[in-house]
From TrEMBL:
InterPro entries: Gprotein_alpha_su, GproteinA_insert, P-loop_NTPase
Gene Ontology MF term list: G protein-coupled receptor binding; G-protein beta/gamma-subunit complex binding; GTP binding; GTPase activity; metal ion binding
Binding-site residues, Mg(2+): T78, T234
SUPFAM superfamilies: P-loop containing nucleoside triphosphate hydrolases (SSF52540), Transducin (alpha subunit), insertion domain (SSF47895)
Region annotation (Disordered) ranges: 1-43
GO CC annotation: cytoplasm; heterotrimeric G-protein complex
GO terms of biological process kind: adenylate cyclase-modulating G protein-coupled receptor signaling pathway
Sorted UniProt keywords: GTP-binding, Magnesium, Metal-binding, Nucleotide-binding, Transducer
Protein name, per record: Guanine nucleotide binding protein, alpha subunit
Residues the entry annotates as binding GTP: 74-79, 203-204, 228-234
Amino acid sequence: MDSSVAQDSKYIHLNDDQDRTNTTDKSRSRNKMNLAEEREAKRNSDAIDKQLIAEKIAREKEKSAKLLLLGAAESGKTTVLKQIRIIHSGGLANERKRYQRIVYLNTINAMKALCAALISSDIPLTIPDYREHVEFITAMANTTDPTYMNGQSITTLLTKRASTDTPTASTLFQQAAPAIKALWGDAAIKEVYAKGLAKDIQDSAKYFLDNIDRISEDDYEPTDIDILQARVKTIGVTEHKFEIDSVVYRYITRVG
């Protein structure tokens, strides 16, 4: 055999051996990577399984019940929840400040509805000078208060006499309180209420107007009865969690 041919054949065999070695090394490297990925995937899977088992055990240990209450707006769903919390869940002491705003706004809205009905009726004011109070209350326009409950914004009323800065519910109520007191003492407003002439007036209107002197005191803090009477429109689905006798209740309400 020619020496050059033999030499070429030798190189070919060497190259083939090298290729096989490289292929084997790459295969081993891929296998190692696959094994590492499989071990990592198994660790993740085991961790998830462990978490799911722990959650299942926790759920089994926790005695719970769901209460679903459906109803139209202002049908009393939130009132039922407040009653349950007052009786079984330590009350509503932590929410009194928030409900103070709601009571103020409910009271203003009640008189606003009565004044609008008075203007639409032929009933004259017993005291003609109170016409100024009627104009003051009806001059109030709607604005947005950065106070939220159950995910919903609470509407406040902003008088035209106020500054460009939005007043707090407390400031706004103190401005309106004298007019509300005077008008609720007028027989004409009482007649409008008694005849049911006011549209969209809340069922708690008379309660708050009857208690206007107490509500307008500087150190006013809502009582449990005030909170039960307070009205905030709930929209959509809301969920509240509380415990009674070691049983966790999830109270779910939905409008509609």
